[in-house]
Amino acid sequence: MIIIIISFILLFFIWASADIRSGIYLRCICRGNRMEKAVALTFDDGPDPIHTPRILDILEENNIKATFFLIGSNIETYPELVKRIYDEGHIIGNHTFSHTPSYTLWSSKRIYEDIRKTNDIIYKITGKYPVFFRPPFGVTNPLIRRAVNNRFISIGWNIRSYDTLKFLKRNSISERIIRNIKSGDIVLLHDNREGSDILLESVIEGIKKKGIEIVPLNKLINKNAYEI
Ligand SMILES: [Zn+2]
């Protein structure tokens, strides 16, 4: 009996830290208003020199504004892509500088410095300090909460594409997204993966067919994307 109880407690703590929607350690916004027939698309882990430009072209062709949660080390390597994302009217969010799994074991001071460093680099390129933060891997814990709270708005998702899994066919990923999507949803995608352009095109087409509008994240959740 005691083993069963301990197993349940362990499972609870794993769920609390691994599922961004749990809100146990860090309150994350995972969706917008269900009353508006609109959703937001978010891209993590860029900028990427091959895939991000193609994603931006597709968004431009469809007159859609998305949100890019950028990794600081990639921003330093490809600042011109960050400028393009910003200049084309998309929102830039903070996805840490290092984006390493070990950050979950860092002190809250070190986590904060990693996030702050990323914001400073973004500011140098855009003149804006992002407010939206997305925890890498969707993992949260009390140290991350201490680093982030009252400084950033943490953004999760409620439609996970699983587009990082290579063995999943891009058309089956888009079919699942389109089947499940509802008003107010925040969709998690990546702009550093093979086939991300094909996936985006079919996701946009399917969402449009359902009569749902794709809007910028700040509009969907009614929050400022940058410090004012
Ligand atoms: Zn990530």
Give structural attributes.
228 residues, alpha/beta, binds zinc ion, two-stranded parallel sheet, 9 helices
Question: How does this structure look, described?
Answer:
This protein has one domain: Glycoside hydrolase/deacetylase (TIM Barrel), CATH 3.20.20. The chain is an alpha/beta fold. The radius of gyration is 17 Å and the shape is globular. The protein has nine helices and eight strands. β1 (38-44), α2 (51-61) and β2 (67-70) form a beta-alpha-beta unit. The termini are far apart. 43% of the residues lie in helices and 12% in strands. The strands form two sheets. Strands 1, 2, 3, 6, 7 and 8 form a six-stranded parallel β-sheet that branches. Strands 4-5 form a two-stranded parallel sheet. The mean pLDDT is 92. The chain binds zinc ion. The site of zinc ion has 5 residues, from loops. Zinc ion is lined by residues 44-45, 95, 99, 136.
Provide mean pLDDT, rounded: 92
The percentage helix is 40-55%
Rg from alpha-carbon coordinates: 17 Å
Count of extended strands: 8
Shape: globular
Structural class: alpha/beta
Low-confidence runs = none
CATH class: Alpha Beta
Number of domains: 1
* CATH structural architecture: Alpha-Beta Barrel
Terminal CA distance reads 55 Å
Q: Provide the list of bound ligands, each named once.
A: zinc ion
Order of helices and strands: HEHEHHEHEHEEHEHEH
Q: What is the CATH homology-level superfamily? A: Glycoside hydrolase/deacetylase
**Major beta sheet summary:** 6 strands, parallel
- If helices are DSSP runs of H or I spanning 4 or more residues, what is the number of helices? 9
Q: Would you tell me which CATH topology applies?
A: TIM Barrel
* Share of residues in strands: 5-15%
